[in-house]
């Protein structure tokens, strides 16, 4: 198809007067190719002693020599232990239970180690281990092997011994005491009883010391509100499984709201059981994971959310605080509020508005509902930071009253909005010590950069929620010359022994009725979970204050954290950088998301260019006080509330990063007053940004058989044939089900194991834990931004995101069928192509479907891909010659081609290019080379290991034993794996479920991956 | 790195068969190697109070040898001439319960205890005074001279190969002599005949010039074509054979940093393979034993016995190899202590599967119960370990096709055996029928 559209590669081309444009028109290369320089000197050429014949001789000889030399195999050395540790058997994995909290993410984990090195993170599934790993935690194993880690302590930028560091800190503290200066410990939230005790002891010994807790992404308002009402600085640990109605006002609780980790309890109520599932209203500005999962999503600005919250408060408590809610929202918000009130104790309301009054209303509404999901039993202790105290510290530092500043787990130079003030204050501090994993922005400016071990090399104890206790234990000896912050504190407190002994000493009082070894083995201990005493506050005053809060001037900037990057502490993690954002599907970037309407208004656009890459305009964001963030790439985000724009924190880091990882812009600079909502203006800037986006932003165009959706009402009342329609084809002029027609004779699959992977679209929140787990398990390479842009990403498992502009696919189909004539078809399709202002979102994890009748197998000229009786589609890499016929013939586009050698190749300077990074590789899975096709193997190394384990123990395989990396990582219950030939297995029941369907069923591939129709409770 | 021949090579087979033929005639010589005779006459030495050193030797080997040696310090002190050092009644007490003696404060006992790194000697209450006297009698025997018979035993296998070398040459020489005589005789006969013909006046017809055979050959297009085809096929055959052996390292026997003899350990001493390669039962790797496993025995075995030595490798050579182990593991044999200075041994890996092949030892060793020798050859005979099997895919697959899966007593197989035996109509199932030929079972 030809078009007279003008394509252009850079803005320069639009400038007619530019000389480069003219040059480019006539020449492929702007600069002359230096051939004359090379061949011009004929004298030198003729007098050269090397004739052309000689040259050819040398070439011939060296080629032959190289060929001969290549026949010689390498000599491999095998070096056994001198003294083999009893528990280590080479080739057998060991697991260690641990709990991790890095100041932002927290989880109960099992660390898989092979030959003494951690290679994979799994969820701890023992009773009491409540928090499962998200994508960032799964990826944190790679941060252990980060070659940019701080490898030894530094004093004033020079490597130093720990004794020097210790004495420096000690003398500085003594000096502070003598001169009357403050000693400040600035840490992230610790949630560690022993560390907190150590700090309390330190303050007890040094009266001039104080402890300031700083969360980079603050939940301070919610903490303040809870403290006001209940007298304790903590957060409610909601249990969404107990709620039949969830109203979220600007809280992305499936993301990182108040620490996150709510998805598994949320999804328990989202799978229809006996005709019932929870209903979820989401009022929000940015399109978030929670908004994507919601049954009813209302895009609205934070100003409107505040009014809506007061309105809901009015309805639920019967108050009459005057609100100024826009009319277009009134009906829907009232509906939500009334349903919430009707749900009573089955309802719950959460809010992410950074305003203490709003957070007070949340407590008020849930108290009024007597919500079961809202419980003050076992409150969360993973956020403790106080905005006021941090602001006070910066003021103190600027005033010069802080003598010694000891920082641990924080990077304020990067994460503080007023970084300049902090840096200015830091210069006035006599001694600053940064305990850090990296030589990050703060460590670079500190007197002492103290290298700390990764959590997989450290001891610690944690208490995520009140009454629970967990131990962080090392899974490997420290790789570098590092020392824990706590060990230094111990010596500062004049205590002997190690922090490990200190924890062990403290534990006995906590782990009543259990033993240290048992708790260490389990990783967790659940003690007595106490509740905080009931309390109240002046809620109506809070409501009126909130109702009267003024909307921001100009555009409302809503800052958020991305699923991949979080607060940005793992910015040097290539897995996370390449992880596509679940909503925008863009990797390696942060960007400003604008609504369609605003995009038109500011003339911002996204377009897909000839090579399939996504391009976007640049914009400049200016805050109310004149701070500018220039050249921010723009993504036009369907569902973004008009008048708001979104921007992710955690990007734009510069220090301790490999060159490739320096991407995005630092949005923390705009995070003024720890408020996620800022008043800004937006202006279009010149140039086009090249995104690495893995999915075009199109609608489904009514092809409902990729994603099947229905409403709870239809699901409950109609026959399965209606909402899970079987594709029909014509056979002998009769309509028959597509699944009944077959070109091939089928194999007998009734014997032995036959694996199926079930994916429930209702339970999938798009969190991406499976994507990273798959990376870690299968040695999937990272290819980098420019390769992702060329659609050469290597993700074996991708989570497709689909928008649908109509509320039902049936509606789309109807419109499509009512098209009459060409003009009507054009206009209707155009309309359908425009993503709606408030689209519905569906996530669909897609990996190799392991078709029983696989199209890829029939076209492989060398039989490199073949089928097994166990239902897995095999891929023999050593047999593959790279014709890529299979990828072309795959209807699901799940095959990945190794365009380059991604390991030991400096062109791809990610973890596989350094010895340290390669330590994460799974020794049971081959590292693929250039020119080879690869794809999901349904974790055959894991299924084979399970079978072997059963054989070795002489017993049948038990249901639930078969797992894949993705099904293991999925704590939401969306992915289940098992043997369908085991009729008692969960998977066999799922395969027989009415909601079950196959992807593109009409193609007749008979996949072994099954999906479950998404049901929305609209 | 290796010497690899064409596995299809005819010349190798020819050579092998000639060698076989020749060697058959000499096998009888090899049989003559006689076991070393215990040179020391048992009752030659002085025996006090009629104690029996023969019984003493038995008792010594059963009870004492784990920690004591006659002529060297081991965990305990050397025992030869112990009777001269200590009083017999004191020794009786010490052997029965040394720790009690130490506790009682006996000065001599405490001294012995301190001298030996405070290692407590186990109590032997079951030994009677007579038993202990027998042991003492054995330890009191003078050190036997290096047995002269040993040289004799060495001589036999030593001469045998040289014998065969000589006889080979003699036979070859005789054969060539016969050939030479035949040629000379033919020449002479020819000469005589032509002389006779001349004498009889018979004219030998002059040869008519004919076309040389190669020209005739070149003219015959059919022959040229056939031989060209033959040559092409033959060269293709050899090229294919050459290419197919690339990367096949059968018989690869690199020189290892320590000369470890499987012949001595698995053969002569009959140590089970899985004692050292214990992880073969549970892991994908058979595992090279860590040095602490070696020291389980070598803590008390600092030198090989005289009978271990072969003409090729002397006792001194083997003893030096054990010293290498001590150096690697950091064992101070004189003080019976670990020094803590270790030098991990960098063995050269013999069996190198490419990274795209997954092989699991426990599947084959533990589940299938296959003998190690099936794939690794008669290891117990190998002085130098080598790669026995070609480790090619064809080799794997052939075995999977033939081998019946050992299913009895393994409940994992109960259901699948029932199903598959019905399907194939057989009672025994091969690994191939179980799905052992599927690509993805080994390649991932």
From TrEMBL, chain A:
Protein name: Quinol:cytochrome C oxidoreductase
Domain 4Fe-4S ferredoxin-type: 755-785, 839-870, 871-900
Highest classification ranks of the organism: Bacteria, Pseudomonadati, Bacteroidota, Flavobacteriia, Flavobacteriales
SUPFAM superfamilies for the chain: 4Fe-4S ferredoxins, Formate dehydrogenase/DMSO reductase, domains 1-3
NCBIfam families: MoCo_extend_TAT (TIGR04519)
Annotated transmembrane regions: none
Matching CDD domains: PsrB (cd10551)
InterPro entries assigned to the protein according to its UniProt record, in alphabetical order: 4Fe4S_Fe-S-bd (IPR017896), TAT_var_transloc_signal_dom (IPR030948)
Listed PANTHER family: GLUTAMATE SYNTHASE [NADPH] SMALL CHAIN (PTHR42783), GLUTAMATE SYNTHASE [NADPH] SMALL CHAIN-RELATED (PTHR42783:SF3)
PROSITE patterns, sorted: 4FE4S_FER_2
From TrEMBL, chain B:
Keywords for the protein's UniProt record, in alphabetical order: Electron transport, Heme, Iron, Membrane, Metal-binding, Signal, Transmembrane, Transmembrane helix, Transport
Keyword Oxidoreductase: no
UniProt keyword annotation of Iron present: yes
InterPro entries: Cyt_c-like_dom, Cyt_c-like_dom_sf, Cyt_c_III_dom, Multihaem_cyt_sf
Domain Cytochrome c, residue spans: 51-143
Pfam families in alphabetical order: Cytochrom_C (PF00034), Cytochrom_CIII (PF02085)
Signal peptide region: 1-30
GO molecular function term, any single one: metal ion binding
TM regions (residue ranges): 170-189, 222-243
Domain of life of the native organism: Bacteria
Name listed for the protein in its UniProt record: Cytochrome C
């Amino acid at each position: 198809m030809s078009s007279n559209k003008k394509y252009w590669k850079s803005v320069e081309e639009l400038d007619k007067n530019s000389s480069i444009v003219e040059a480019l028109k006539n020449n492929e290369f702007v600069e002359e190719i230096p051939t004359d320089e090379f061949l011009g000197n004929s004298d030198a050429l003729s007098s050269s002693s090397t004739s052309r014949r000689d040259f050819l001789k040398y070439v011939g000889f060296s080629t032959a020599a190289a060929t001969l030399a290549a026949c010689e195999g390498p000599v491999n050395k095998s070096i056994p232990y001198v003294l083999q540790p009893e528990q280590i058997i080479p080739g057998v994995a060991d697991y260690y239970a641990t709990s991790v909290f890095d100041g932002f993410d927290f989880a109960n984990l099992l660390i898989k180690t092979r030959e003494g090195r951690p290679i994979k993170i799994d969820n701890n599934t023992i009773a009491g281990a409540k928090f499962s790993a998200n994508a960032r935690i799964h990826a944190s194993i790679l941060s252990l092997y980060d070659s940019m880690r701080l490898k030894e302590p530094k004093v004033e930028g020079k490597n130093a011994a720990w004794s020097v560091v210790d004495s420096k800190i000690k003398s500085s503290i003594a000096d502070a005491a003598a001169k009357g200066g403050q000693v400040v410990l600035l840490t992230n939230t610790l949630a560690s009883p022993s560390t907190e005790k150590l700090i309390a002891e330190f303050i007890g010994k040094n009266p001039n010391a104080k402890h300031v807790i700083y969360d980079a992404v603050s939940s301070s308002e919610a903490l303040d509100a809870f403290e006001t009402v209940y007298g304790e600085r903590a957060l409610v640990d909601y249990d969404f499984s107990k709620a039949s109605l969830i109203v979220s006002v600007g809280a992305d609780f499936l993301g990182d709201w108040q620490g996150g980790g709510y998805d598994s309890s949320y999804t328990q109520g989202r799978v229809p059981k006996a005709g019932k599932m929870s209903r979820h209203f989401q009022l929000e500005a940015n399109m978030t994971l929670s908004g994507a999962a919601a049954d009813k999503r209302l895009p609205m600005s934070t100003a409107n959310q505040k009014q809506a919250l007061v309105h809901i408060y009015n309805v639920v408590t019967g108050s009459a605080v005057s609100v100024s809610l826009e009319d277009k929202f009134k009906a829907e918000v009232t509906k939500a509020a009334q349903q919430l009130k009707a749900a009573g104790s089955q309802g719950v309301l959460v809010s992410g508005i950074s305003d203490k009054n709003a957070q007070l209303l949340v407590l008020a509404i849930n108290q009024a509902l007597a919500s079961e999901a809202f419980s003050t039993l076992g409150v969360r202790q993973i956020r403790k930071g106080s905005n006021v105290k941090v602001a006070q510290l910066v003021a103190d530092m600027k005033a010069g009253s802080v003598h010694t500043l000891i920082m641990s787990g924080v990077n304020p130079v990067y994460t503080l909005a007023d970084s300049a003030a902090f840096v200015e204050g830091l210069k006035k501090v006599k001694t600053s010590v940064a305990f850090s994993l990296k030589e990050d922005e703060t460590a670079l400016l500190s007197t002492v950069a103290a290298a700390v071990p990764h959590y997989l090399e450290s001891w610690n104890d944690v208490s995520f929620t009140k009454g629970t206790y967990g131990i962080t234990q090392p899974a490997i000896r420290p790789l570098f010359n590092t020392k824990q912050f706590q060990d230094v504190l111990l010596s500062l407190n004049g205590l002997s022994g190690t922090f490990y002994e200190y924890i062990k000493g403290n534990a006995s009082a906590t782990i009543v009725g259990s033993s240290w070894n048992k708790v260490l083995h389990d990783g967790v201990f659940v003690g007595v979970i106490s509740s905080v005493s009931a309390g109240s506050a002046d809620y109506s005053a809070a409501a009126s204050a909130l109702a009267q809060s003024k909307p921001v001037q100009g555009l409302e900037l809503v800052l958020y954290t991305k699923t991949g990057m979080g607060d940005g502490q793992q910015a040097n993690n290539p897995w996370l950088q390449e992880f596509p954002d679940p909503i925008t599907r863009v990797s390696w970037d942060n960007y400003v998301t604008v609504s369609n309407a605003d995009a038109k208004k500011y003339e911002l656009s996204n377009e897909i260019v000839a090579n399939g890459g996504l391009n976007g305009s640049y914009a400049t964001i200016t805050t109310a006080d004149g701070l500018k963030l220039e050249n921010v790439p723009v993504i036009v985000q369907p569902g973004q509330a008009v008048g708001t724009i979104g921007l992710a924190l955690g990007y734009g880091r510069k220090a301790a990063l490999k060159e490739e990882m320096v991407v995005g812009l630092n949005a923390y600079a705009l995070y003024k007053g720890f408020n996620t909502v800022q008043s800004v203006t937006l202006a279009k800037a010149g140039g086009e940004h090249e995104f690495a986006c893995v999915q075009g932003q199109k609608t489904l165009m009514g092809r409902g058989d990729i994603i099947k959706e229905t409403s709870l009402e239809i699901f409950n009342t109609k026959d399965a044939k209606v909402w899970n329609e079987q594709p029909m084809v014509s056979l002998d002029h009769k309509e028959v089900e597509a699944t009944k027609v077959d070109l091939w004779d089928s194999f007998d699959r009734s014997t032995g194991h036959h694996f199926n992977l079930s994916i429930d679209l209702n339970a999938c929140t798009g969190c991406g834990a499976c994507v990273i787990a798959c990376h870690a398990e299968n040695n999937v390479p990272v290819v980098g931004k420019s390769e992702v842009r060329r659609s050469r990403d290597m993700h074996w498992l991708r989570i497709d995101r689909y928008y649908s502009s109509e509320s039902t696919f049936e509606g789309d189909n109807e419109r499509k069928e009512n098209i009459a004539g060409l003009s009507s078809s054009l206009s209707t399709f155009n309309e359908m192509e425009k993503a709606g202002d408030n689209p519905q979102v569906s996530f669909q994890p897609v990996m190799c479907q392991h078709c029983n009748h696989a199209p890829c197998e029939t076209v492989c000229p060398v039989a490199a891909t073949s089928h097994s009786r166990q239902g897995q589609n095999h891929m023999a890499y050593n047999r593959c010659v790279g014709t890529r016929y299979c990828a072309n013939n795959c209807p699901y586009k799940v095959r990945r081609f190794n365009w380059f050698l991604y390991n030991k190749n400096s062109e791809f300077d990610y973890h596989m290019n350094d010895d340290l990074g390669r330590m994460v590789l799974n020794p049971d899975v081959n590292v693929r080379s250039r020119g080879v096709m690869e794809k999901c193997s349904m974790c055959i190394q894991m299924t084979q290991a399970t079978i072997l384990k059963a054989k070795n123990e002489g017993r049948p395989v038990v249901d639930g034993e078969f797992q894949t990396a993705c099904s293991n990582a999925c704590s939401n219950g969306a992915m289940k794996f098992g043997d369908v030939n085991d009729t008692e297995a969960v998977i066999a029941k799922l395969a027989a479920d009415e909601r079950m369907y196959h992807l593109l069923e009409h193609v007749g591939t008979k996949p072994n991956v099954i999906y479950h129709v998404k049901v929305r409770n609209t | 790195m290796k010497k690899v021949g064409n596995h299809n090579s005819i010349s190798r087979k020819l050579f092998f068969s000639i060698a076989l033929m020749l060697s058959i005639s000499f096998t009888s010589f090899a049989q003559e190697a006689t076991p070393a005779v215990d040179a020391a006459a048992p009752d030659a030495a002085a025996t006090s109070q009629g104690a029996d050193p023969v019984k003493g030797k038995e008792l010594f080997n059963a009870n004492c040898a784990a920690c004591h040696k006659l002529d060297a310090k081991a965990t305990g002190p050397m025992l030869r001439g112990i009777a001269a050092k200590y009083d017999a009644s004191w020794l009786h007490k010490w052997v029965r319960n040394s720790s009690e003696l130490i506790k009682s404060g006996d000065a001599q006992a405490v001294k012995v205890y301190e001298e030996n790194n405070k290692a407590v000697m186990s109590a032997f209450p079951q030994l009677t005074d007579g038993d202990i006297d027998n042991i003492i009698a054995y330890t009191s025997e003078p050190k036997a001279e290096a047995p002269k018979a040993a040289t004799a035993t060495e001589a036999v296998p030593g001469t045998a190969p040289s014998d065969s070398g000589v006889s080979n040459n003699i036979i070859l020489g005789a054969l060539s002599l016969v050939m030479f005589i035949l040629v000379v005789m033919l020449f002479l006969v020819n000469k005589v005949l032509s002389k006779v013909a001349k004498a009889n006046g018979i004219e030998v017809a002059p040869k008519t010039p004919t076309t040389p055979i190669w020209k005739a050959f070149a003219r015959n297009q059919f022959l040229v074509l056939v031989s060209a085809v033959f040559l092409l096929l033959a060269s293709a055959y050899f090229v294919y054979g050459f290419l197919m052996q690339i990367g096949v390292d059968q018989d690869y026997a690199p020189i290892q940093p320590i000369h470890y003899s499987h012949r001595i350990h698995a053969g002569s001493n009959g140590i089970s393979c899985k004692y050292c390669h214990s992880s073969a039962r549970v892991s994908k790797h058979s595992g090279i034993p860590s040095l602490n496993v070696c020291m389980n025995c070598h803590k008390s075995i600092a030198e090989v016995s005289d009978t271990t030595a072969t003409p090729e490798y002397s006792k001194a050579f083997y003893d030096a190899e054990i010293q290498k182990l001590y150096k690697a593991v950091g064992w101070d044999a004189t003080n019976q202590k670990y020094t803590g200075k270790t030098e991990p041994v960098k063995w050269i890996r013999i069996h190198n599967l490419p990274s795209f092949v997954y092989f699991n030892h426990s599947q084959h060793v533990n589940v299938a119960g296959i003998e190690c020798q099936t794939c690794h050859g008669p290891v117990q005979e190998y002085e130098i370990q080598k790669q026995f099997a070609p480790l090619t895919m064809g080799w794997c697959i052939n075995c999977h096709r033939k081998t019946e899966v050992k299913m009895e007593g393994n409940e994992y197989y109960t259901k699948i055996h029932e199903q598959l035996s019905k399907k194939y109509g057989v009672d025994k199932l091969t690994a191939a029928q179980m799905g052992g030929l599927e690509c993805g079972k080994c390649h991932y």
